[in-house]
């Protein structure tokens, strides 16, 4: 059974523009699915509908065995990482990571344990007492990942998470995300306009164009047969 299932999903914005046109997509448990395509093709809109941040105009969305069309983001078993990190500037790294867990009423000692374990995985143990403005771009991106991982989501949603990093760091973080996916054994859905990123990271790739899905296949199938 699919981990995330989109059936006939459409998005028509308030101004009447149809950004997503009745797409069907079955994302399997534990796969690294990359949504790729040119700017404006509907990738972010699709991801935001999975996250519950954008209302679905029509179609059926399930995550795990839960029908989630009208389920609030916090009650979906997902976490999302954005390109602009969206860290809380007045909080330390530790408190940024603890925030979602506190909302879920996770016990204090479990919060501490989970944050320390996550910080080790991402190599940010030394940064826990800093504020976001005291971090480099790469460090901020790791903290944003940490804040998502620490909640142990079933599905991990990422929207161009590397696009604000310089080229060298971007290549390094690609490898780290592949390793993270292997370590966490969870489902990743990753949006990018960058074909190299899609090809190197995805276990499967969903190619979008103008609000529709053109092809869903393994990277070697898509990029070896133009
Ligand atoms: P992508 O992530 O592939 O770049 P988006 O999903 O962000 O594409 O956008 C798809 C299309 O929907 C674009 O043409 C964009 O301009 C349009 N769009 C996005 N948000 C809105 C909105 N709030 N109102 C109207 N149109 C929107
Ligand atoms: P990068 O070149 O990778 O963006 P920076 O030049 O911003 O990194 O930072 C280099 C090192 O200095 C990093 O380890 C970062 O944590 C540390 N650092 C940056 N700004 C501050 C600050 N305001 N206070 C303490 N440490 C800082």
UniProtKB/TrEMBL annotation:
Organism of origin: Fusibacter bizertensis
Gene: ugpC
Protein's UniProt name: Sn-glycerol-3-phosphate ABC transporter ATP-binding protein UgpC
Stretches assigned to the ABC transporter domain: 4-226
Keywords: ATP-binding, Nucleotide-binding, Transport
Any one Gene Ontology molecular-function term assigned to this protein's record: ATP binding
Keyword check for ATP-binding: yes
């Amino acid at each position: 059974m699919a981990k995330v299932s989109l059936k006939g999903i459409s998005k028509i914005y308030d101004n009447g523009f149809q950004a997503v046109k009745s797409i069907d997509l079955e994302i399997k448990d534990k796969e690294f699915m990359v949504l790729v395509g040119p700017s404006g093709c509907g990738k972010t809109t699709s991801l935001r509908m999975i996250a519950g941040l954008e209302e679905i105009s029509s179609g059926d969305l399930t995550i795990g065995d839960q029908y989630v069309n009208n389920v609030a983001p916090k009650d979906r078993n997902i976490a999302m990482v954005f390109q602009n990190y969206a860290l809380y500037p007045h909080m330390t790294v530790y408190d940024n990571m603890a925030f979602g867990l506190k909302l879920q009423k996770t016990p204090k000692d479990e919060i501490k344990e989970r944050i320390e374990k996550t910080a080790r995985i991402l190599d940010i143990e030394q940064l826990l007492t800093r504020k976001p403005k005291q971090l480099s771009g790469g460090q901020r991106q790791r903290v944003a990942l940490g804040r998502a991982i620490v909640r142990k989501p079933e599905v991990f949603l990422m929207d161009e998470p590397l696009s604000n990093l310089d080229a060298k760091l971007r290549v390094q973080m690609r490898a780290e995300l592949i390793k993270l996916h292997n370590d966490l054994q969870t489902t990743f859905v990753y949006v990018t306009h960058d074909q190299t990123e899609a090809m190197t990271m995805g276990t499967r790739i969903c190619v979008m164009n103008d609000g529709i899905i053109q092809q869903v296949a393994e990277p070697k199938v898509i990029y070896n047969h133009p």
